[in-house]
Every structure is written in structure tokens, then in C-alpha cells.
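Support request, please re-run this one:
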Amino acid sequence: MHASRADCRRLNMTDSMSAPATPAPRATDEDDLFLPDLCNAQSILFAVLVTELMCIVLTLVQSSPVAFDWSALGLTSMFVQWIVLSSAGLLCNVRPLMQGMSVLRTTLIGYVVILAITGVYSAIAEWIMLQDEIWSIHNSAAIFRNLLVSGVLIGIAFRYLYLQHQLRRKEQAELNSRIQALQSRIRPHFLFNSMNIIASLISVDPETAEEVVEDLSMLFRASLGDMSDEPVKLSEELDLCEKYIHIESLRLDDRLQVEWDIDVDTELVRIPMLTLQPLLENAIYHGIQPLPEGGTVVVRASVDDGQMRLSVENPVGAGEQAGSHGNRMALDNTRKRLEAIYGPSASVVSRPSATTYLTTVSYPLQQTR
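Re-run finished. Output below.
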């Protein structure tokens, strides 16, 4: 019988691990608003740059490229940027109050806020420009013109933001469907191989077979309990792997040994469920099982340059071409699943050699706020 995890696992709990890994941003109630989070510095910078480009265009229309009116650009920029920054600050504060509101109501609130600020700043600007003159119809017309221009630009901007929001929601829905489809393909792979283990034990040891069925039911209860892409603690994934290895050890006996080299805090690090287990299954079925003398599967976990790295290494028979046969569905699905969750920075790499077969999983380690 293989050594227990407490005996063979070398836990090096590092102090450098200060935060768990999280998945790519998921859709929340806050993300359901089509208005962007204007409290974000990146959003403010984008708004300022777009506004300044618009001011340059307006100045070019009123002057010419040869005799560019820099003073007009300065006054226009100061006026428009004040409106944009003030509107962004006010919308940033009222955005939490818009949660759960309809698109129409959110649009109306945005219009009222921006038009009110435009009207106030326009009146102040016209009052400053009066000097010793008396308020006339021209001043009121200038304010109305600014409100009209602002209303048209708000409509264009809101329409663009709404379409972008709808596109992001569609992409998120497609991503979730893709992840669930990949998960549904991984689970039958695990089920069919596990049922073979149970079948091999029924005739020789019914009581042990019953225990295996109970362990298997616990594995499926945990894996089928959450069909989303929400990662779980690494400790939970390792517990599932321990149950699976226990089932395999009953079939392979002393031929199977597992060594754990975990160099991270398993309570902080998170991982998509059923990421490590299929790799262990491949290592046992295509590495340990064909060897008459068996061997040791080495599982390592570490952090390197902000990347979480998990590796599974197993021996191969002398003269065999590692990885040339066997079911690669688990490796391919795991790779596609991680890429769907974490993007191109995630990878699953296999490195065969004359005596070993090494599979390394890497995905970005992020910090929760």
C-alpha cells in the first residue's frame, strides 16, 4: 500500500504566498450596468483623452491647421474637461444607487446628471464672459447650444457603451458555456476509468468495492456540486486527488507510490476543480499501470514569477515513447479549460523523456481585493 499523504507529502508553507489566486473577472450585479466604473483611473484617463481629441477637432473646425488658435483650444479644453470630470465624479458616486435599475432609468439619470452639469458650467462661463455687458438672448442661446451638443454626444456615447456592454455579456455567456462543455467532457473520462476499477474489485473483495463506490460518490458529489468556473481551494482539490489515489492504490497495491512536494499555502491558492485529478489519472494509467514494478508519481506545486505551477511526473517503461499512446483527452480539455478561464497566459505543457513523462500546468496567480 502506498504511503499516506501525511507521510510522503513535504509541505513548505511559504510566507510569500499572501493572497489566493482568483479567476478571470466574472459577471456580477455591479457589472450588469452598461455605464463603466468611472471611479477607475483607467476609465478617467480614457475619457480625458477622448475629450481632448474632440476639443482639438472643434478648434480645427473654427480655425485652420495653418493658423491654429491655441488660446481657443485652451479655453475649449478647460470648459469641456471640467464638464467631463465633474460628470464622471458625480456618476461615480451615484453608480451604486443605479444597481438593479432598468437601462431606460439608468440612461435618464445619466442624461440628467450630465446635462445639469453642462447647464451650470455654461451659465458660469457666459457670466464670466459678460464683463460689464447685460445678459442677452445670445447668452441664453449659447447655453441652449451647449445643452443640445451635450445631449447629442451623450446619446452617441451611451449607445456605444450599451453595445459594448451587450457584447461583453454575450462573450461571458459563451465563455461559461464553453467551460461547462469542457467540464462535462472531463467527468465522463473520469467516470469510465473509475468504473473499471470498481469492476475489477467486485469479484475479489466486495466490501472494498463498496468502500470504493462510497469514495467515488464523494468525488462526484464534490465535482458535480458546482458547474461554474469558480475555483476552489487547492486543499480541496488535493483531497479529491487523495480519494482518487486511494481507489487506485487498492487496485495497484504497492506498485503505486505518490510523493507530494507542495510549496504553497493550499488554503490560499485556488484552482479550477478537477484540474489536477485528470493529470494524476493519466500518470497512473499510462505511466504506473504498464510497469510491472510500478513506480512513484511526483506532484509538485510552486509559484514562479506570479504564475502558479503544478506538475505531475511519472516513470515510463524503458524503450517506450512516452506520450505516444494513451488517451490525451484530459490533457487537451484541461488546457482548453484553463485558457478559457485565464486566457493565453495559462498553459499545459507535456515533456516526455526516455524514463519519465512530465506534465506542467501554469496559470496566473492574482490577488483578491
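The longest strand covers residues 295-304. The first helix runs from residue 5 to 8.
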